[in-house]
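User: Run a structure prediction on this.
Assistant: Running it now.
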Amino acid sequence: MSEHFEDSPGAIQIISDQVKVKYGDWISVKDRLPNFDIEVVTYESDGFYRIGYLMEDPINNSKGNWFGAEGIEFFPSHWMPLPEPPAEES
């Protein structure tokens, strides 16, 4: 997963605002989950934003487990797709 992303609330809030314009609002983890192993912007109920991914765990949890870029498990309440990378300049 992304090793170069600065996991700061300010940077993630900017990404979140950009993604809302293109994809809409936050998606509750109760309503729908992202595909496994795809990085997304997440929001935890304590107000913390993070880039994370859902990892499949068929033995212990059929819905998977969430991990951040640092490899620590966490429990988001909402998520949204990351924005598309910028177009390459010619």
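The chain has one domain: 9-81.
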